[in-house]
Design brief:
The complex is a heterodimer of chains A (88) and B (281). Chain A has 88 residues and is an all-alpha fold. Chain A contains 4 helices and no strands. Chain A is elongated and about 40 Å long. By secondary structure, chain B is of the alpha+beta class. In chain B, 41% of the residues lie in helices and 16% in strands. Chain B is built from 10 helices and 7 strands. In chain B, the strands form 2 sheets. Chain B has a 5-stranded antiparallel β-sheet with strand order 6-5-4-3-7. A two-stranded antiparallel sheet of chain B has the order 1-2. In chain B, helix 1 packs across helix 3 and helix 5 crosses helix 8. Classes of the chains: A mainly alpha (88), B alpha+beta (281). The interface between A and B is large, with 44 and 46 residues.
């Protein structure tokens, strides 16, 4: 007699499905692995949507510094996201 | 003409001014490799935003019947509920988000204070959690005001009677935070040096989870959040940054000066991936 399948943890996540939820969690995990400096700049610009000028004023850094820091933060984030092992 | 990755990122973010924007624009059209880099920046931005915006899109069934269950102490919220009820005569199954948000006048606050009079919330001697400002609007006082300014949602203070739910940036350029004290919950929005309270309500005893907040927020509060929120709720880092600047979107000079000292250490990083060294805390 075949043993019954373990009950699926089939939570209904919604129309965009479990895959999208996994994606979001991966990004959240990757964000948590960034240095605080990088996390803050990503949060201000990419999540809060502040213009560079405003984000630079908030952090009290020149625009050039903000831009290069944001670029480094994105690089780090992209790297974390492409290295899936770091996120599981 | 070649462009650095910083320039391409700024272009992808819509941050370049003319004439540079047109120059990059032309280069991107001509070079699929550049176009791919720009696209990668945009995709990452969208992905990050989505990761933190998604929490607000999840349907919360408890919201549908919470309005009936909770005693709403805000005239705004009561009006809102009526508008919604009128818009959906058949059932409450499809809540309609009305873009109309009636202005919160002095009269409404006075009515709320009348309801609250004699309760823990509002004491005539000013020792309660809320009071009225010069124009009769409901504002946070005492421990509530302190908690709204200092407590992080991610790091609840065990000794505080106040729990912070979510924090977010508003469409009109400010910040609001949802909170609860005992069986009541509300929304507070930063207004100059005070926290204005546009809605205050009994907490609905329902199972609907709103983000990771341990407590549930009544529908009146969720509605008030929906009406104001720009983008998504703030994560811990954004919340900390907002607290650092006194819940202003712009820092005043004094705060700028104070932040300037410890932050300087990090400015000279040359290699990508290098950690910012903390000299002292």
């Amino acid at each position: 007699m075949p043993s019954s399948q373990p009950e699926e943890e089939g939570e209904h996540v919604g129309h965009d499905g479990a895959e999208a939820q996994v994606q979001r969690m991966a990004v959240q995990k990757a964000m948590s692995l960034l240095s605080e400096e990088h996390r803050i700049v990503v949060a201000l610009v990419l999540v809060d949507g502040l213009p560079y000028k405003e984000a630079a004023a908030v952090l009290d850094i020149p625009m050039g510094t903000l831009t290069s820091r944001l670029a480094r933060a994105r690089e780090a984030l992209q790297k974390l996201l492409s290295d899936e092992r770091a996120l599981t | 003409m070649t462009f650095s990755d910083d320039i391409l990122m700024a272009y992808a973010d819509g941050e370049l001014a003319e004439p540079q924007r047109s120059q990059v624009d032309a280069a991107v059209r001509a070079d699929p490799e550049l176009a791919a880099i720009v696209e990668r920046h945009r995709a990452l931005r969208a992905r990050v935003f989505d990761a933190f915006a998604g929490v607000l899109d999840e349907p919360v069934p408890a919201r549908l019947d919470a309005a009936a269950a909770s005693k709403v102490l805000s005239l705004d919220a009561a009006r809102n509920a009526r508008t919604r009820a009128a818009a959906t005569p058949a059932s409450a199954a499809a809540p309609v988000r009305q873009p109309v948000w009636p202005r919160w006048g002095a009269l409404a606050a006075t009515l709320v204070l009348g309801v609250l009079a004699g309760s823990l919330w509002f004491k005539g001697d000013g020792s309660g959690f809320v009071g009225a400002d010069g124009s009769g609007r409901l504002v946070a006082r005492g421990q509530l005001a302190g908690a709204l300014s200092r407590q992080l949602a991610s790091d609840p203070a065990p000794n505080s009677p106040v729990r912070i739910g979510v924090s977010f940036a508003t469409r009109d350029g400010g910040y609001c935070r949802s909170f609860s004290v005992g069986a009541s919950a509300g929304l507070a929005c930063r207004d100059g040096e005070t926290w204005r309270i546009p809605v205050l309500s009994d907490k609905a005893a329902s199972g609907g989870a709103y983000r990771q907040a341990a407590s549930t927020a009544p529908e009146a509060v969720l509605d008030a959040i929906d009406e104001r929120i720009a983008g998504t709720t703030m994560n811990a880092a954004a919340e900390r940054a907002a607290r650092e600047r006194g819940w202003r979107r712009w820092l005043n000079q004094e705060r700028l000066n104070r932040l300037r000292q410890p932050a300087r250490t990090c400015y000279t990083i040359k290699s990508p991936g290098a950690q910012c060294e903390r000299r002292r805390t």
